[in-house]
Design brief:
The chain is an alpha+beta fold. The protein has 3 domains: 114 residues, no CATH class; 132 residues, no CATH class; 65 residues, Winged helix-like DNA-binding domain superfamily/Winged helix DNA-binding domain (Arc Repressor Mutant, subunit A, Orthogonal Bundle), CATH 1.10.10. Strand 2 and strand 3 form a beta hairpin. Helix 5 packs antiparallel against helix 6 and helix 7 crosses helix 9. The two termini are 38 Å apart.
Length: 365
């Protein structure tokens, strides 16, 4: 399969197809590994004066190596596709058909199905009508998600789900894990009682485990791991399953263990316990404490603003930028109140117009 990153690579595939190019099509598809943007070409030939149409798969579009494509003002896969498609249209006089230019969406019709499409009422994109009773017919799925997100912001719905584990030393914060449920942490059974006793009623309750706690935890983890290693067996994978299941190697106390990357719970447990023991050793030797963050009053507004400052603005921005981000979802007063709340609980600091995220804010998003 060809990977298309430049016009030269696209042009090479077009020439290889032969015939007269009439339509270049870019369509999204996705699976559990992510989204893919594929290019197809419609051509015509005239053997013995009869018109024949042909359809070719050219390859998948990708951002040139070394280029970031997930952040604002950076090249995106769809940006690459649009630029290359426009170049092809100019060179060959063909029609460039790319119905989902703003991001991944596999509900758009192919070129030959476009007569079946309807326009999304929110973004104007051509989509195929769906039959789901749970999603509005008149909008695309991304716009449906945006409507739900806007509604969640307007209602300031609770966003207390999820637990973060960090290693802290002074202002240094190392994010070590996140689980939607506390019980999903491998170490949860060993520390549950201590944690429950130390939770406060603050909006963000911080539960710390000091070196003494971590030493006890490490010993408990090692005891369980020793039992797991007694039951360890080297991977056996049937030939027909090798394309779905792989292996990897880990080291523990001078020995190497080969583990299956899926469909073997004992191997998964061994890997998890080794990781958690290594984390405990790091905390003990380097002077970190474990800190869990329990949210008890964080709303979707709070969470969204924190994520905007942290991820989009790289930890620092100005109030105007935050207001502009939510201009279609929240009033200026609601944005100001949200910033004020986050300052009060220690997740943001404000100096004049400048807003910065704190260590606490960083630890809970």
């Amino acid at each position: 399969m060809a990977i298309i990153t430049t016009f030269e690579s696209l042009d090479q595939q077009i020439k290889k197809a032969g015939g007269k190019p009439v339509v270049l099509e870019a369509l999204w598809s996705g699976d559990t590994n992510g989204w893919y943007l594929s290019c197809y070409l419609y051509t015509v030939t005239y053997p013995f004066f009869f018109r024949r149409e042909h359809h070719y798969f050219l390859g998948q579009v990708a951002v040139p190596e070394g280029t970031e494509y997930f952040t604002n003002s950076k090249l995106t896969i769809e940006g690459v596709a649009e630029a290359l498609g426009n170049q092809a249209a100019q060179k060959y006089g063909l029609t460039f058909y790319f119905p989902a230019k703003d991001g991944p969406d596999d509900e758009c019709p192919a070129w030959t199905e476009r007569h079946l499409g309807i326009l999304c009422q929110d973004c104007g994109k051509l989509i195929l009508p769906r039959k789901s009773p749970y999603i509005p017919q008149e909008i695309c799925y991304p716009c449906h998600l945006k409507r739900e997100w806007d509604e969640s912001l307007r209602k300031a719905e609770p966003a207390d789900d999820g637990y973060n584990l960090c290693l802290l030393k002074g202002d240094e914060c190392l994010k070590m894990g996140y689980c939607t449920k506390f019980e999903a942490f491998t170490i949860a059974p060993f520390i549950r009682d201590k944690v429950q006793q130390r939770i406060t009623k603050e909006i963000v309750s911080i539960v710390a485990l000091d070196i003494a706690d971590i030493l006890v935890l490490k010993g408990q983890l090692e005891t369980v791991l020793d039992k797991l290693l007694l039951a360890y067996e080297k991977p056996y994978i049937e030939e027909r399953m090798k394309k779905f299941i792989g292996t990897y190697k880990v080291q523990y106390q001078g020995r190497e263990y080969e583990l299956m990357d899926r469909r073997n719970q004992v191997h998964a447990d061994i890997a998890s316990y080794i990781y958690n023991i290594e984390t405990a050793e790091k905390a003990i030797t380097e002077g970190y404490t474990y800190q869990f963050f329990f949210k008890q009053g964080i709303t979707s507004r709070d969470d969204s603003v924190l994520r905007f400052v942290h991820y989009v603005c790289k930890g620092e921005t100005i109030i105007f930028n935050i207001q502009q981000r939510y201009v279609h979802s929240l009033t200026a007063e609601e944005v100001s109140a949200t910033i004020g709340k986050l300052v009060q609980i220690g997740c943001l600091t404000v100096s004049g117009e400048r807003v910065s995220i704190t260590t606490l804010g960083n630890c809970i998003v």
